[in-house]
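Fill in residues.
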């Protein structure tokens, strides 16, 4: 199997054959949205330029206002909290669990205030946090939940597809993700009003578009009386060429996810016997989708850089570290928010004094192994190098 197959090429050719005429424009996006919605058994899927824009739009659709607080984990790729800033809201960080590495209802509850408008849960590395508990707290406090599933396609919790717990769920088609079109993103929801707003705000605030209608008709647009913009919007629309690849990938979702899960199983077999490596805990009722395979290293036994150096020396393909915690990034520490910091919204927040104990413990210890091998032998080779690295230091 290859990551990109005939299907994607054929759909690209179809777009090109359409000569970008107004009749053909947006057709591929519409097909992608329909297919994606069917896959996740939801009413709406709205495609956008990337998985950061989708989060930004989800927050706007949720009615997040300037100065509202949005809770998110700090152990994630920073787009999660960057989107909060883009919506002129305040990121509030809730700690993660030491074993699952995921945001929890308990930590969320500790930071809820009257200003909390939304929660962005992150299905980190392909595993979803305990969504039922989070939804209960959210409902009790009337807070909108957005699942950031950029790293999580085809995972399950309590026999339910991850992405169908929150009010909205956001996906990325960036090049490292399970499904890719180089760049791209999509939001799903069952709520008609949210879908209308997602579409309108990501489509320049056009009047004639809605959750189910991505394009304005010729009759609308060719009238001199037509008032286009009913509200402020962004142009975050996905291009048809991108949708062509994303459509092929969505149709192949199961096999693309399965390849990563098989690769993860190879690493797991080796890591299981080692006392100083601890896999991300998968709680009962969860099926992980393994965007990557992540281990916590006892750095008191072997240093992080030392481990990585040995793994590479033995022929390993590379190990990634966890991102710096979002609030530790210079942007947050210095509050360089493109002058939004001068609006008074952030005066009572000092990100230098934020401490999420578990996330700070985990961040320097995580070893992230690649799982995007479409040929099982390649994954087995990497897992064998993991075995040799473990043997070098002694189990
Ligand atoms: C958890 C998470 N959220 C959001 C994003 C942003 O997606 P994109 O790169 O498509 O903007 C990514 C990855 O890039 C991610 O890993």
């Amino acid at each position: 199997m290859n990551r990109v197959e005939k299907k994607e090429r054929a759909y690209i050719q179809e777009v090109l054959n359409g000569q970008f005429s107004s009749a053909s424009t947006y057709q591929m996006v519409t097909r992608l949205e329909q297919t994606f919605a069917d896959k996740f058994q939801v009413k709406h899927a709205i495609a956008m330029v990337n998985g950061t824009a989708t989060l930004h739009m989800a927050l706007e659709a949720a009615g997040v206002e300037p100065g509202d607080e949005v809770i998110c984990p700090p152990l994630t790729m920073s787009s999660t909290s960057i989107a909060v800033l883009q919506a002129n809201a305040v990121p509030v960080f809730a700690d993660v669990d030491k074993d699952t590495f995921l945001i929890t209802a308990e930590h969320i509850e500790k930071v809820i205030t009257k200003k909390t408008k939304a929660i962005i849960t992150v299905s980190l590395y392909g595993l979803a946090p305990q969504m039922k508990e989070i939804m209960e707290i959210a409902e009790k406090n009337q807070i909108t939940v957005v699942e950031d599933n950029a790293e999580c396609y085809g995972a399950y919790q309590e026999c339910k597809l991850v992405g169908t717990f929150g009010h909205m769920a956001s996906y990325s088609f960036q090049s490292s993700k399970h499904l890719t079109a180089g760049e791209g993103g999509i939001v799903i929801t069952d709520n008609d009003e949210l879908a209308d707003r997602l579409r309108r705000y990501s489509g320049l605030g056009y009047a004639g578009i809605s959750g189910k209608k991505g394009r304005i008709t010729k009759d609308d647009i060719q009238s001199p009386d037509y008032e286009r913009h009913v509200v402020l919007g962004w142009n975050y629309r996905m291009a048809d060429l991108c949708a062509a690849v994303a459509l092929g990938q969505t149709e192949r979702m199961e096999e693309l996810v399965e390849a990563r899960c098989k690769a993860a199983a190879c690493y797991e077999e080796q890591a299981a016997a080692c006392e100083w490596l601890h896999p991300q805990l998968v709680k009962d009722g969860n099926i992980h989708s393994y965007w990557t395979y992540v281990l916590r290293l006892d750095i008191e036994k072997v240093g992080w850089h030392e481990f990585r150096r040995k793994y590479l020396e033995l022929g390993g393909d590379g190990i990634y570290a966890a991102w710096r915690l979002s609030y530790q990034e210079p942007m947050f520490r210095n509050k360089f928010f493109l002058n939004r910091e001068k609006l008074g919204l952030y005066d009572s927040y000092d990100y230098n004094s934020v401490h999420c104990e578990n996330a700070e413990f985990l961040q320097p210890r995580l070893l992230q192994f690649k799982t995007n091998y479409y040929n099982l032998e390649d994954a087995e080779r990497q897992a064998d190098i993991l075995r040799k690295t473990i043997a070098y230091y002694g189990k």
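Residues 50-52, 76-77, 79-80, 122, 148, 150-151, 172, 174, 185 surround pyridoxal-5'-phosphate (CB under 6 Å).
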